[in-house]
Model the fold of this input.
Amino acid sequence: MPKEIVLDIETQNSFADVGKYDPTLLKVSLVGVYVSATDTYLSFLEHELSQMWPLLESADRIIGYNIIGFDFPVLNQYYAGDLGKFASLDIMYEIEKKIGFRVKLDDVAQATLGVGKSGHGLQAIEFFRRGEIDKLRDYCLMDVKITKEVYEAGLRERTVKYKDRAGNLVSVPVDFELKNEGRKAVNLTMPF
Done:
């Protein structure tokens, strides 16, 4: 069984706060992960990220929703290596390749699973700013759980769904199988 990590991050600030769309200007508040090898959900605050790197480095693949365009650029500010070199599956990117545009996780989750997200990212920023870390953790780990379930549904059914602008259910064929692309399970990108 492959060692996979499902990952989602929350940030301390927004693009409106930094004045432009640039994920490298954002700071992590919390990262939530699901670790398939132990069937556990974990979370890491900004000052705890060093505890998370070994999990990512030993994973066969990191899975998320918009991790290539958002999560990895934000996290790379904290990591001495390059998360972009890790084997990964970006579910949003895979859907976008098939249909030509981006679809929100909430839309895919509702159409594929019948459940949606519990809130939105700006709400998570407010939780952080108010010091409501338990609410922030719950919100982030719910996103991780939904992402995991969308991934598992796509793996099992070889399709995910969303509703188009007319409200029609659209199936998108996907291939989420882990491919052996010559990458090692341990991604030793750390410079020591």
Notes: Helices lie at 15-18, 53-57, 67-75, 91-99, 105-113, 121-129, 133-157. The domain at 4-173 is CATH 3.30.420.10 (Nucleotidyltransferase; domain 5). The first strand starts at residue 4 and ends at 11. The CA atoms of residues 57 and 65 lie 19 Å apart.
